[in-house]
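A note on notation is needed here, since sequence and fold are reported together in a single record. The reader may check this reading against the record printed directly beneath this paragraph.
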Amino acid sequence: MTLFDDFLLTTFSDELERFLNHPQPPPFIRCNTLKSNVEDLRAVLPHYGVEAVRHPGVGVALELREQRLATEATGFVHHFAGAFVKQSLGSMLPPLLLDAQPGEKVLDMCASPGSKTTQLAAMMNGDGELWANEVSGVRMNALAARVDASGAMNIIMQQSDGQRLANLCPDIFDRILVDAPCTGLGDRDNLRHARARFERAGRFSSLPDVQYSLLLNAMKMLRVGGRAVYSTCSLTVEENEAVLDLVLRRLPVRMVEPPDIEGLVLRPGRPHHQGRVLHPDVALARRIVPWENPSEGFFVAILEKTDELRERHARASLEPRVEATLGAEDERVGAILANIELNYGLPGELFADLRFILRNDSIMVLNPGLKELWGGFFRAGSPLAKRRGSIWRLSHSAIQRWSSRCTKHVVHLRGAQLEELARTGECDLKLDEWFPYPVLWIEGLGAVASGMWDGERLRWKRARAYWVPEGWVG
């Protein structure tokens, strides 16, 4: 038996065999309530050959039961249109317990790939400020794609090391999600990689130091009385209860007991481990073990900040740089909106109360309340359009949001034409008026994207990545 095997036995004890041999959890999707609703989504899915069953305790979660499934759910054109996100059931619990409300200032400290971020945005009904932080530039691309599909205009993306983020922003947040990087030892599929890391390092991991640092920085940025949720997809005590033990002993925080959730077995945290007595309140955390739930293993804890941090833990004083957003009355914004109205028929009054940010040849649109943001952000809001020569080409997310108001250069796709586009990425098309970037409208779904037209052929290069069911009638 290796040291790693000994570690597994210490972690799972007499339930190790259950961890190693439990059935694979079923696939789940989360309905994006900014663009759809659960019952409408359930009615659509049979067209893809899928039966969906609503989870009794997590109302936006649908368990997929395959009938004649021809592709992954991420290949459905409704996924591209943002109607749902493929997301495990356990992954939906941290945002659910954070309970973000419309109008609040919320931070997701480790945001990519964005499933939890966009779940928070939907819970906030797209209102307030939702900051999504990610340290990796590569992972920012995945985050941006998920944010764009969500339709949310209140998400501000920040690229920074979460362990130093408190040096950049004030203690303004009402709620913070710390879904920390971890070993993944709640998912049996991660065992091989975890074993390799363990044997290469000759010890467990340095991740608990990172996890504690992330929580410390979260408490620096959280207002007194604010709520934080700490979560990992690991079941090791070292990454979970032991980290909370340090936080509870060093910082002015208290644990909050989560509510019961129908259809899930939530075990209490472990206040004892290998003869070590931890802070008794860690029992208020919750463990989700995969042999009792339709999910990978997860750990979640709710904390509330009760007082200001002591001086040695407090953030350095700073005056954050503030950047003002632009209104529709701004001359540059007005010219872009006029161009969009000319080419797509979207009336200017549609944008009268919204806010904008210009970046090179792109314009981003934000909620009316976001009149200024503290500076240094990577990207803010949702993409509205990008300049292509003399034309401001609408983004896919803008087309999906305002599809019913697009009155010019809209191509309605149906029947053989739609099937050819989905199969090959292009189809024959004749238009009465020259325009290189027409809006693509799929019957039964609405406008989903901007295509490219060369005068004879319509192209949408991403069409082949998505499945439009044969005979789709909506």
User: Anything to note?
Assistant: The first strand starts at residue 28 and ends at 31. The longest helix spans residues 207-221. The radius of gyration is 24 Å. The mean pLDDT is 91.
